[in-house]
Structures are given as C-alpha cells and as structure tokens.
Amino acid sequence: xxxxxxxxxxxxxxxxxxxxxxxxxxxxxxxxxxxxxxxxxxxxxxxxxxxxxxxxxxxxxxxxxxxxxxxxxxxx
Length: 76
Ligand code: FES
Known about the structure:
The protein is mainly beta. The protein has one helix at 53-57; strands at residues 3-6, 12-15, 36-38. It contains one helix and three strands, in the order βββα. It binds FE2/S2 (inorganic) cluster (FES).
C-alpha cells in the first residue's frame, strides 16, 4: 500500500519504494530521495519536488482531513 502524507503547510510525502513520478508525457523523473516530497505550494525551484521553499514563502495549506478522531497537530 502506498501512503501519501500531507505535511502541515508543506509537501505531499509519498512513502513507497515502488512509486515513480512521471510527467504528462509519461516521462519518468529521476527520484533522488525517498520518501518522495512533492511540492504543494507551487514555489519550489525543483518542481515537482519540494525544495523547502514553502517555509520561506509562508505557505498555508487547506484544512486537514475531517474524521471522528481527527486532531490537528502542530507543523513539524
Ligand atoms: S511544498 Fe515545499 S517547496 Fe512547495
């Protein structure tokens, strides 16, 4: 199973040794680090990968998932 975690005010983190990232032409990106962090803020200079710029631009993500046991945790 592949788990995609949303970092609070940060990237999508793909926890899988099997996952690959491909562009709209089916061309595969070279993945240099795992887990894979995909930019969610749009400000990375290494798109589609996160380069940490979200912290400098003050990116604030949308709401967390809603569920019966959901508790919002501080950003890490
Ligand atoms: S989410 Fe990290 S640079 Fe965009």
